[in-house]
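Training component of the fellowship. As part of building independent skills, the fellow (R.M.) carried out the full modelling exercise for a liganded target. The chosen ligand was flavin mononucleotide. The inputs are recorded below so that the supervisory panel can assess the work.
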Amino acid sequence: MKTLLIVFHTHRSKTAEMADAVARGARRALVEAGAEDELRVIVKRCHEAGAQDLLESDALILGTPENFGYMSGMMKDFLERVFYPCEGRVEGRPYATFVAAGQDGRGAMTSIERVVAGLRLRKAHAGVVGLGELTPDVRANCEDLGAIFAAGLALGAL
Ligand SMILES: Cc1cc2nc3c(=O)[nH]c(=O)nc-3n(C[C@H](O)[C@H](O)[C@H](O)COP(=O)(O)O)c2cc1C
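Fellow's submitted model of the complex:
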């Protein structure tokens, strides 16, 4: 069985709601494809997740608020903790990012991409940025992100 790992941090609630939507979309896609036995979806907050989780996963989706034009401190802490134990051991695995932001989001997205490029993960989706209040459209985009990863992994097409 393959594993999709979703790791996120939230200060208040928006990134957590986006993470819920990503996981919901992934699980729904598995049910629709009759592929529940093909993939497990694991959701962890940054402080709960570590190198072993990443090593045991087949794909990674990261979620963070944008803080001061960057990923959240907790996401940076997660990436700092996993970087050296995972360097050279996760190359080519697909990843994507979702960002909760007030009015921008690009700094959080690019800061994650820079670090993850060092792990040689493969960007498999443009990611989702949700600005301002969480809208139904952003929720749907998060569900689509999860569905694309789940279906792609289950079918061996990602
Ligand atoms: C300390 C702090 C810094 C922030 N910096 C930015 C920023 O640089 N760019 C931006 O678009 N939003 C910024 N925001 C807004 C948050 O990214 C936004 O409210 C986000 O939805 C919070 O997600 P959460 O509810 O999951 O914590 C900041 C918020 C806080 C509290």
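The panel noted the following from the submitted structure. Helices lie at 14-32, 51-55, 73-86, 106-118, 136-154. The longest helix spans residues 14-32.
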